[in-house]
Specification:
Strand content: 5-15%
Order of helices and strands: HHHEHHEEH
Distance between the termini: 35 Å
Strand order of the largest sheet: 1-3-2
Largest sheet: 3 strands, antiparallel
Number of strands: 3
């Protein structure tokens, strides 16, 4: 990987050109991307419904700005469909595209695996930490 020559925007463009699938993976597995995709697997949601649903499963709810950015990013990647209905008051529904459903199912499987295997991960962490602590004392 080349050394950055400055500028976050320039770095993002260079990263996307070098590794476009990595950028999509980051969008899908981001903190809010995961929760949006999993929530939309159940059914389409309006923005406020989606925000409340994410707030129920997250320690801290998602801000309106962050949710809007996440939805726009996932929409741009072809994973989320935004359906704006010309009514008063305006109504916008978000749903998964076919591509988004595929991604969401994969993300949900990984989330379930994490839940099921958390005890093993915690055990491995304790073993690792104890070994590191013993190594530090031996030095």
């Amino acid at each position: 990987m080349p050394v950055s020559t400055g500028g976050a925007a320039r770095d993002a463009v260079a990263d996307a050109e070098m590794c476009p699938y990595r950028l999509v993976l980051e969008h899908v597995t981001s903190r809010w991307g995961v929760l949006v995709l999993i929530e939309l697997l159940e059914r389409p949601h309006r923005f406020s419904e989606l925000r409340r649903a994410i707030g129920r499963v997250s320690e801290r709810g998602v801000s309106e700005k962050m949710l809007a950015q996440t939805l726009q990013t996932l929409e741009r990647d072809g994973l989320v469909h935004r359906d704006a209905k010309p009514v008063i008051p305006p109504r916008v529904d978000y749903s998964l595209t076919g591509l988004g459903r595929e991604a969401a199912e994969q993300v949900r499987a990984l989330a379930l695996w994490t839940q099921e295997r958390m005890a093993d991960v915690e055990r491995a962490r304790r073993t690792y930490d104890e070994a590191r602590a013993a190594g530090t004392r031996a030095s």
